[in-house]
Every structure is written in structure tokens, then in C-alpha cells.
Amino acid sequence: MILSGTVVVNSDKIIDDGAVVVDDDTITTVGKRNNIIDKFPSHDETQSDILMPGMVGSHIHSVQSLGRGISDDSELLDWLFEHVLPMEAALDAEQMEAAAKLGYLELIETGTTTAIDHLSVAHAERAFEAAGEMGIRGIFGKVLMDRRAPDGLIEETQAGLNETEELIQKYHGSFDDRIRYAVTPRFAVSCTEECLRGARALADKYDGVRIHTHASENQDEVETVEDDTGQRNIHWLDEVGLTGEDVVLAHCVWTDESERTILEETGTHVTHCPSSNMKLASGIAPIVDYLDRGINVALGNDGPPCNNTLDPFTEAKQAGILQKADQLDPTVTPKESILDMATVNGAKAAGFDTVGELKPGWKADIIGISTDNTQATPLNDILSYIVFAAHGENVEFTMVDGEVLMEDNTVTVVDAESIRQDARRAAESLDIKGTRSPTSS
Amino acid sequence: MILSGTVVVNSDKIIDDGAVVVDDDTITTVGKRNNIIDKFPSHDETQSDILMPGMVGSHIHSVQSLGRGISDDSELLDWLFEHVLPMEAALDAEQMEAAAKLGYLELIETGTTTAIDHLSVAHAERAFEAAGEMGIRGIFGKVLMDRRAPDGLIEETQAGLNETEELIQKYHGSFDDRIRYAVTPRFAVSCTEECLRGARALADKYDGVRIHTHASENQDEVETVEDDTGQRNIHWLDEVGLTGEDVVLAHCVWTDESERTILEETGTHVTHCPSSNMKLASGIAPIVDYLDRGINVALGNDGPPCNNTLDPFTEAKQAGILQKADQLDPTVTPKESILDMATVNGAKAAGFDTVGELKPGWKADIIGISTDNTQATPLNDILSYIVFAAHGENVEFTMVDGEVLMEDNTVTVVDAESIRQDARRAAESLDIKGTRSPTSS
């Protein structure tokens, strides 16, 4: 297949009138369309205004999708323990599948091709199967919580680790290695030392398995960990093995100098979730300092109850402008760095070494976005449109691993309307409601 | 005409299975559809998923639309004097019209029905005519700059005031009183005392004419005014008459206690432009304090070179979440208050007393938004969807003053594609480019 359009190879290189040749799951040729088109007469050609690497959602909660908008205007720990965890605990296997599919549908529609996805304690296999079938790439993990968790989510430590190992054996490297495993302790507050060390042991035992957890999102969380362990959170995580090049820490809003040094020296990946941090009043993460230190910073939308969408374009804009306001310096997060965070940095965090740029030999994870709209007019600057003006609605084409998941704005790999209907039904049966539900009058 | 759907009357009242009856330019009845539909057999019915008051863009620069994305990652005064003002100065009458129409097209498409629009020094009549023809409501003003302005924008003081008065006489109250005048000095930095006092005199002379200017957006601006006048900016504006219930001050990021007291005591309106303030590294405006003081705070997208869209939904979300992060308190800007800022507060700032809510006797400025999309699924909370998840792309119907401007996602009042084409041509002829223009490779 040949994809043609303005090709954004990465944040450094844009090819006008370009083309990308895809064979099987791989990009084989990238260049000027004129130099390519005649050499591949048997390849079908598909056109988009802009072709770019698929976005990487480096910290999401697909299975929270049924709780979109259920707890606005509330603070992280209340939001989590009063609203979101009870919802997660209530989901049966069918509802979990409905939630995960809704999340993956939104990713496909809005241009995310790789996810680092924090599932729930139960029914993780439904999400793995859904992600596999729906064609997205990612690292996924059942959540581990062995203390401070509501009924229905708390597990005996070894039971959670055992189930994790079974899921690793079943799904890590599955679906042509699109689907990999991330051992996923929720956060230090809800995990004992045994649980956290067990997570590290599993990641060490299985090649390529990563660790994904929340860290230092909120001041109360940091204080709780300090009360528990006598240490700052990142020090504690480092002591029990939850730092390193195979570890993705979401948020890292509240870190001190010594903790940042640990992140830097261990090569730990940080996922920045600016909209979630803002909406939950968690704070503004010190991303500019992380970037200055060479820490790999990726981007994530977090979940629909806290963002309230998985649209990676609005998150890129947020990351682009929030640090400027916080630092009173517009140069700290140039749009090129934001595109990196939203694409190749996320792939690096997830451990996919040939994902996140459109280069020969790299995986064919490609999205096409339209410029036939007012927000792209005039199109004075391609990267500016991508980072500051485009929305997920402008994505018209999504390909992962060489497979077309959406074309001409229509999801081809599943029936989008039936996924939305299943999600509505599941939310109704669970009686999920926000404060201003549709029937209020 | 009857419009039916879930009716968001205002932030307090939502009517499920509701309907709004529009006669001429006015809403005559609002209620349950079942109680309404049989009483108006001769009225056509149009359905939307959600009907709500049109958004009010309370500080925009329609005529900067050709400069979308031309100066990303730069600071306000550089951005203004190096990039945006030279572009404004270069626009001839045709190009100014193309720019304004592009801006108004984006407003119509994304659900803004009333604008407080800062034009440019020259060719303001092209924007007035365009706004009048295209059907939007608003207060508009030719810009006054009689010092510290580039060639092509600087005017002799009295010449600018004279032209302002001619425009007031021609356009204030025109197009069935949809179009009104706001005397528009750019900001204190670029206006002499004579100019500012002249602006006040004109507003006093003509009933209903307002004043719209920028104030205390940036620290360098505040220092410049202090160097010029020996006073903090809001004190200076107050001294020369640019505070009061007929004054709209955009931004007000950098104000001290005494200045806030002036804003409060004079009933001056403040327009919050969070994304612009973030992108230009201006800072985070003390909106929570303004709200606590009872100051009327409205919302604005500012201009396409600094936002980079006029989508009022993304701006509402930004306003909703930025203050939470800044104050570390998620309750400071509840979604109800954000909807007020985006609608009725803006109408109040603009001086349209019966705009911004869907109530009998109020103007028929109504938008319809779709919930048939993944980001609205499940629809657990109507206001949450509007404030935190919807984008301008979800607007499917736009009515101003009882006239349908867009229906079924298609702008009916003008040919959208020809406006976009004219804008592209104008940008090309001006050689407007960003740093990563479409032809970079």
C-alpha cells in the first residue's frame, strides 16, 4: 500500500507531496511521491492531507471509559476512592469489555495507535482480547492493589501477582507482538512492599515486560507514602525496584531535586498528563526540568472521568501551552518537542523501538489528518496545526502494524455504533451518572 | 420554528425532551416538547441532541485569522510587534475582508453566536459588513493606536477618533441591532492619554457604545505603562475613564489588590483568555479572585495566531481546569460557572441583556450540539460533556437572532469553502508563513 500526502516523518522532517510505502506491517520506503509512485505499480494508493506517526497515549485508563464525566470538580483521592474505584469494582466481565472497547474505539478515532493502558483488577483478559482484536498496539496490565482498596478490588498479594504472571504468559507478545505486558501496581498507597517487589520480580523474569504505575500525582498521596515508608515516593519506588529503563511512572507532579536525580539516573520514563493534573487539581508537573535533565517525557490523557476524552491532540496542545504559562517562558516547550512527547517518546516509554516515526524499517503505525477545515486555514505551519489547532475529529485514517483501522473517518475494524450502544447499555445497567445527568430538569 | 432536544436553558436548568419555540428573532416558549408541540402546528420542527445558548466569544481578533500559527512559541510583545502587527499592517481591504470572514466562519461553525471583536486600524468597515451579512451578533471596533505602532497602523490621534465616530454613526445598532460598536484602543502602551480619553468621550456620547481594550496581559506591558504614567495599568485606565460597566478589559493577568478593587467597584468586565495567556507565556489570570469579588468574567479565544483556533468549547475546558491546577482546588471553577462565563457573562459584558440563556423573551441565539459520538458516550452528564469533552466540531446547528446560520453541520448563510479559499489566497499573496510551513522538507 502507498499512502500519500504531506509526510511528517518526525518533528525534524516534513516531506511535501510525499509518500510512504507500507509492506505487511512495516514502512519500507518514505520520500517524494513522484520518486515513489512509479516504482510500485501494484500498490494501492490512499491519500491524506497530512500523514504522521500515530499518537502514543502513554498513560490511559481505557476501562474507566464508562465513567466519563461522573465526578467533575473533585480532587484526586476523593474522585478515586468515592467515584472511580467503586465504578471499577462494579464492572462485570461484559461491562469491562464494553468499557475497554469504548476506550480503544476513541483511540482509533482520534489517532492514538499505541497505548500504555492501566486496566483494572478484574477481567483484564477482556481488555487484552479487545485491544488485540481492535488492532491497536500497546502495553497493558491488570492492576495490583493489596491494601487501601475498596471491596471488589483488593486482592491477596500473591493472588494478584499470580494472575499477573498468567496474563504475561498468555498475552505478552501476543497478536504479532502488538500486545505486550506491563506489570501494573496501582500506586504505592494501595500496594504493599511485597506487591511492589513482586512486580519488579515479574518484570525481570519475562523479557520485555515493563512496569507501569502512578507516582507522585498528588500531595496527599506523597504524604501517605512518606507516612508509610519514611521516604519520599520516588525514593521508595527506587528502593523496591520501581525505577529504571523498563518503568513508566505516570504524573510525577510532586518530586524534589533528589527524586528527579533518581528519575534521571535510572532512565525512568515519565508520562505527563497535563489535563488530568489540571482537572483533578493535582498541580503542574515540572516537565521543563525533566526535559532539561534528559528524562524521557511522554504524554497521556489519563481517563475519561478526569479529562474527559482520550483525544491526543487536545492533550498535545495542553502540554505545549501549560508549561509556557507556568514558567512564563514561551520557548520552553517548542512544538517540535511536543510532537516528540506525543509520539516517539511514548513509544520509547512503551519499549517499542521502531514506533513513533515514519522511517523505512519502522512499524507502519500511521495516521492521516485532514486539513480541509477552517481551523487548518490558512495552513501556514504544519506542526502548528498538529500541535495547537487540530482535534481528534480531524483524524481520517488510522493504521497500526500495517492494518487499516479507520479510513475516510469510518472505523473499519469494528462496528463503532454497536460499541457505543454496548457502552450506553452498560452504563445504564450500572446506574452511572454525573451530577448533571441527562434526565435532570 | 420549533427546536427540540435536551434544552440547556442556562447553567441551572436542563430540560430533557424539551423544545424551544422561536418567532422572528425571539424565543417565545421553552418547555417540555410534549407540552409544546401540539400548540404550534404550523411551526417547522428541527431536532438537535442538545440545544444550548450560543457561546459568546468575549475577546477575539477575527482579522488576525490569516496569521494562524505564524508565531508559535514566542512571547506576547515579540509576537505582537514582530509578527502580528506587521501582518495586520500589510492587509489591504480585500485581505481584511477575507480574514474577518474566515474568523466569523469559524465562529459560526464552532458555536459562537456573539463576539466582542477587536478589529484592526484600517478597513474596519469590511469586518462590520462581513459580520452583518454573515449573521453573527457582536460588538466590534476599529483599533486605535497613536504611538508605539508600526508604519501602516499608527494614526494621528484625532484622525483615529474621527474615523471611530464615523463608524459608530454608520454601524452602531445596524443589522437589526445585532451589530454594535465598541471603541477599541489597542492598549495603553500604544495609546496616548488623549486617545484614551477620546475613547471614553465617544462611548459617553453614543448610547450603548462600549469600550473594549487589552489590559495587564503581560508583565512588560504593565512595566511600560508604569514607566509612562507612574501608575499601575488599571489605575491609569481608571484615571482616563477606561473602567466602568461599559468597559471590557481583556486578560487582566497582572493586577494587584488595589487594581482588583477598582475593577470590582467600577463594574468593569474582564475577559479571561486562558489558552492565549498560556501560549504567549503571559501567565495565569487570578480569575477565582475576580469571581469571588463578583466581577463579571467572560471568556475569549483571542486570535488564531495565539490560540490557534476560535473554538469556544476548548476554551471553556481550559478555563475550567486551569484555575483548579493553579489554586490546587478542584472546586474553584465548577462547570456551571464555566458555562456562565462562556455564555451569559459574555453577553452581559457585550451589553446584550437578553442574550446567553434560552428563556422566553430572550433573543434566539441558539446552538445545537451532537451527542452521537464517542466522546459523548456514555452521556452521564450533560454539562460535563459541554464543558469538558465537546469540541466545536460537535456543533451541528447555529442560530442567531432567529436566523439559521448552520444546519446539519453545513453553514447555510455563506459558502464556507469559498471563504476558506479566499483566505488561503490572501495568505499566499501576503507570503504569510509559520516556522514549519507546508513546503518545508
Automatic annotation (TrEMBL), chains A, B:
Keywords, in A-Z order: Hydrolase, Metal-binding, Zinc
Top-rank taxon, per record: Archaea
Domain Amidohydrolase-related span(s) in chain numbering: 50-404
UniProt cross-references to InterPro entries, sorted A to Z: Amidohydro-rel (IPR006680), Metal-dep_hydrolase_composite (IPR011059), Metal_Hydrolase (IPR032466), MTA/SAH_deaminase (IPR050287)
One GO MF term: hydrolase activity, acting on carbon-nitrogen (but not peptide) bonds, in cyclic amidines
Alphabetical list of CDD domains matching this protein: ATZ_TRZ_like
PANTHER family, per the entry: AMIDOHYDROLASE-RELATED DOMAIN-CONTAINING PROTEIN, AMINOHYDROLASE SSNA-RELATED
Entry protein name: 5'-deoxyadenosine deaminase
Taxonomic source organism: Halonotius pteroides
